[in-house]
Amino acid sequence: MRKTYCYNCTKEITSDNHSLEHIIPNACGGRLTSRDLLCKECNSTFGKKWDAALAKSTNAFANLLMITRDRGEPQSEIGIGVRTEERFNLPPGKPPVLSWPTIKEDLKKGEIEIHANSEKELRKVLESYKRKYPEIDVEKGVAAAVHQKEYFNQALNLKIHIGGPEAMKAIVKIAVNFYIYAQGKREVVKHLLPYLNGEEELDIVWMYHPEERVYKAEENEVPHVLKIIGDPKEGVLYAYVELLDAYSFMVLLNEDYTGEVIDIDYVFDVISQKTKKNVTELSLTKKEIKRIVTEKPFNQNQAKSRVFRIRQISNRLHDQRELDRIIRKAVKVFENEPSGEPISEKVKNEFFEQVSLDFAKLMLHKQNSAELIKEISKKKDGNSTS
C-alpha cells in the first residue's frame, strides 16, 4: 500500500489522522476530494483561516444558484430594499424575508403600522407596545392583521466582495491542492507553505479576467475551472482558478520551474454536476504572469459581464423552480379523484384555472421586475454622468 504524507507538515497520513479535503471548498459547491493531501490538523487550520474567508466571499452567488453542498448549511445573505430600505435575509433558494419586523408610528393619528413575517413576530411586537400602552388589545391586533402572500416587489442592494489576504490564500491553497492531487511534487511548491501558514506575504496571486475565456461555458453552465501549466522553457509553473464562472485568478506557483511539461485541467458544472477534462486553453509567458500578480490589473468590464451572466442563469433557475411549484400546487386538485376513473371536466377546469392564474401572476411579477431594473439602471447611469 502506497504511503501518503501531508504536504504541509509532512506527517504520514493514516487512518487516525486522515481528513477528506475538498480541493475546491465545499461551501463553493466543490466535489473533487482527496484524503491524501492534508492531515486532519492542517486541514482544519487552513479551513478555519482561509476557506472560511473564501466561503464568505462566494456565498451570495452560491445561494443565488441554489448550490448543494456535501455537508453544512449555507448561510443567508443580507440585502437592503431599494424602495423601502428595509433589511432582508436572503436564504438560499427561498424568497427574501424581513430580518426583523419593521414599525412605522404615526403619533398624530395614534396608528402603528407593523410589517412582520409571522403572527408570532407580530404578537411579540404588540406585547412590547402593550407594556408602554396598556390599552392595546394584543389579540384584537393579531386578529385584524392583513395576511399577504405575493411576489417580492422590490430590488435589493446586495454587497458582494472578493479578495483580501485570507481569501487569496484560499485560492493559492486550491491551486496547490490540485497540483499535488495531480501527482505534482511537493518540493516544487514547498516555498509557498510559509505563505499558506500565514508566516509571510508573497505577490503570487491576483484576479485574472481575460477577454478570451479559458473555458467557454455552454449556455446554462456555471463552471469551476482549474488548470495547471508547467512550462520548463519559460521556467514557470502557474495555475488558473475559476469559481462559479464569476471569480477567476492567476497563481504563480514557481517562477524557477525546471520540471516536465504539464497541462492539466478540471471543469465542473455546479448546475448539472458534470465533469469535463482537456477543454481549456491558456498560454502565458512568465513575464505576463508576473505582471498580473505584481501590478494587479483589474478587467472591470469582464468582471461585470460575468456577474450579469450569473444573474441571468440564476433568474432562469428560480423561474423554473417557481413553475414547478405552480404545477405541484395545481396537481393537488386531482388528489380526491377516484383512482382508475376518468378525470371530471370540473376538476380539469380547476386545474387549468389554477395554473393560468398562478402563471399570470408570475408573468406580471417578471414584467414589473424588468421595469424596476430598467428604472434603477437609468438612475445609476444618471448619477454616474452627473
From TrEMBL:
It holds the Pfam family HNH_5. Residues 6-57 form the HNH endonuclease domain. GO terms for molecular function: endonuclease activity. InterPro entries: HNH_5 (IPR029471), HNH_nuc (IPR003615). Keywords: Endonuclease, Hydrolase, Nuclease. This is HNH endonuclease.
